[in-house]
C-alpha cells in the first residue's frame, strides 16, 4: 500500500466525505432502488438501473477513500528548511520551461490551483531531499533523461 501525505485539513475533509457517503448517500440510493423495485418490471426500469449505477460509483469511491485514508500520513506543514519533501511547493526549470508544483497528493491540494506531483512519481523520487539551487536528472516514464534545476522550495501553508 502506498503512503499518502495529507495535511490535517485534507484528511478531515476526506473523512467527512467518507462519512457522508457511508451514512447519507448510501441510504438515499437504497431508498431510490427500493422505490424503483416497487414499480415492477426491472428490465425496463431506467430509474432502477440509474440508481444501481450510482450505487456502484458510490461504493467505488468509498473503497478509494478507505484505502487512501488507511495509508495516509497526516503531517503538519514541513519545516521551511529548503529541503524538498512532501508538503513543499517547488519551483523548477525543466526542459526550458519554468513550473511550480506541490509535492504531495491531489487530495491534499484540492482547490489550490497548482499542479501536483506525487513523491512516488519519477520526478518526485528524484527531487526528494534536494535543495534550492540543486540540479537533478531523472529518467522520465518515456525513458528520456530530464535535467531539472531547482528554484524556490517553500512549505505549503493552508489558508
What features would you describe in this structure?
- The protein contains three helices and seven strands.
- The chain is α/β, with parallel strands linked by helices and 159 residues long.
- The strands form two sheets. It has a five-stranded mixed beta sheet with strand order 5-4-3-7-6. A two-stranded parallel sheet has the order 1-2.
Strand content: 15-25%
- Euclidean distance between termini CA atoms: 30 Å
Rg on CA atoms, Å: 21 Å
Counting helices, strands and paired strands, the structural category is alpha/beta
- Order of H and E elements: EHHEEEEHEE
Inertia-based shape: elongated
Q: Outline of this structure?
A:
This protein is α/β, with parallel strands linked by helices and 159 residues long.
Lay out the secondary structure.
Elements: E1 4-6, H1 8-37, H2 46-70, E2 72-74, E3 88-94, E4 97-103, E5 115-117, H3 122-127, E6 135-139, E7 145-155
Parallel strand pairs: 1-2, 4-5
Antiparallel strand pairs: 3-4, 3-7, 6-7
Helix pairs in contact: 1-2
Key words describing this protein structure:
two-stranded parallel ribbon; elongated; five-stranded mixed beta sheet; alpha/beta; about 160 residues; single chain
Amino acid at each position: 500500500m502506498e503512503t499518502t501525505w495529507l495535511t490535517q485539513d485534507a484528511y478531515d475533509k476526506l473523512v467527512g466525505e467518507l462519512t457522508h457517503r457511508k451514512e447519507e448517500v448510501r441510504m438515499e440510493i437504497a431508498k431510490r432502488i427500493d422505490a424503483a423495485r416497487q414499480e415492477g418490471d426491472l428490465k425496463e426500469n431506467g430509474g432502477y438501473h440509474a440508481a444501481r449505477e450510482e450505487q456502484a460509483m458510490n461504493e467505488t469511491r468509498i473503497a478509494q477513500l478507505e484505502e487512501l485514508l488507511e495509508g495516509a500520513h497526516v503531517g503538519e506543514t514541513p519545516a521551511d528548511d529548503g529541503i524538498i519533501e512532501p508538503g513543499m511547493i517547488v519551483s523548477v526549470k525543466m526542459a526550458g520551461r519554468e513550473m511550480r508544483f506541490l509535492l504531495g497528493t491531489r487530495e491534499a491540494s484540492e482547490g489550490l490551483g497548482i499542479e501536483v506531483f506525487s513523491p512516488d512519481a519519477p520526478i518526485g523520487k528524484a527531487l526528494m531531499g534536494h535543495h534550492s539551487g540543486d540540479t537533478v536528472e531523472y529518467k522520465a516514464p518515456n525513458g528520456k533523461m530530464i535535467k531539472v534545476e531547482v528554484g524556490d522550495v517553500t512549505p505549503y501553508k493552508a489558508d
